[in-house]
């Protein structure tokens, strides 16, 4: 369900560059008579892209801004208990992935769930086993989304190596695209940028004498008589002393692909009772059996949305 056609190596390199959120940015310093190479042009683009990514990563967070609802659609409903062709449809919408990259889905995306599960069982025999819900006769699938470039506009280029091809071509454009994935199991909601930087809940004990707060700061907190003002000051102390004090405090920890994914929905399918003539794990594919939870995903709330909700509350 991807528009991308770059090689795996090129995609992994781009993903690694997008994940460099803690390194100082560099922009090209133009000067008369200076020779500029392809690297300089790439650096210029990278500077502007990474500035936007960092702004969204730290100031907006990751999640759904609008739309991207996961729904099931069935053409003709058969009697309950029998399998039928089910289509999962992701509606148009806007989101930000786990690396701060904008996701714009301008059209619905669709996959046939029955055919897709059959293909997964052929390529990965342990897929349904990994998707089995603990303690229940059901499987869970997670629908995720992340940014991925897509090449377009192939144009002839000068061959740079011997025997590289009679008519070598390279893509002249890199489209902003997206990658939808269905993974086994119920993935946890992605941690926020602040959690990754060490700002977990209660990361700073403001009451501890040997904590990071200075004596003046502890006296200031103790002197606040208003409860709300004291709670706000404690939150600000978390922001101040939450990150580690070493050089790599703001660097991302973990696999970049996992960090980039944003959860859209968790799908649950019940299993048939085991029988000798059927596979050990056999999900029931029927509209009345499938359960889809879209609200489990992370959301992004903008000031304009809060204003709209406030006006709706006043109107009611």
Describe this entry's structure for a reader:
With 316 residues, this protein is of the alpha+beta class. The chain has two domains: 8-25 and 35-157 and 168-195 and 246-301, no CATH class; 200-241, no CATH class. Helix content is 30%, strand content 23%. It contains nine helices and ten strands. It has helices at 8-18, 38-59, 113-123, 127-131, 193-196, 215-223, 227-241, 256-260, 303-315, and strands spanning 63-67, 70-73, 87-90, 93-96, 102-105, 109-112, 138-156, 169-184, 262-270, 291-293. The strands form three sheets. A four-stranded antiparallel β-sheet has the order 8-7-9-10. The protein has a three-stranded antiparallel β-sheet with strand order 1-4-5. Strands 2-3-6 form a three-stranded antiparallel β-sheet. A hairpin with a 5-residue loop joins strand 4 and strand 5 (102-105). The longest helix is centred in the first third of the chain and has 22 residues, at 38-59. Residues 1-6 have low confidence and may be disordered.
Short descriptors:
30% helix; disordered N terminus; 316 residues; alpha+beta; 2 domains
SSE topology string: HHEEEEEEHHEEHHHHEEH
Which regions contain 5 or more consecutive residues with pLDDT less than 50? Answer: 1-6
> What would you report as the Rg, rounded to the nearest angstrom?
25 Å
Query: What is the assembly state of the chains in this entry?
Result: single chain
Number of strands: 10
**Strand arrangement across the biggest beta sheet:** 8-7-9-10
**Shape, per Cα inertia axes:** globular
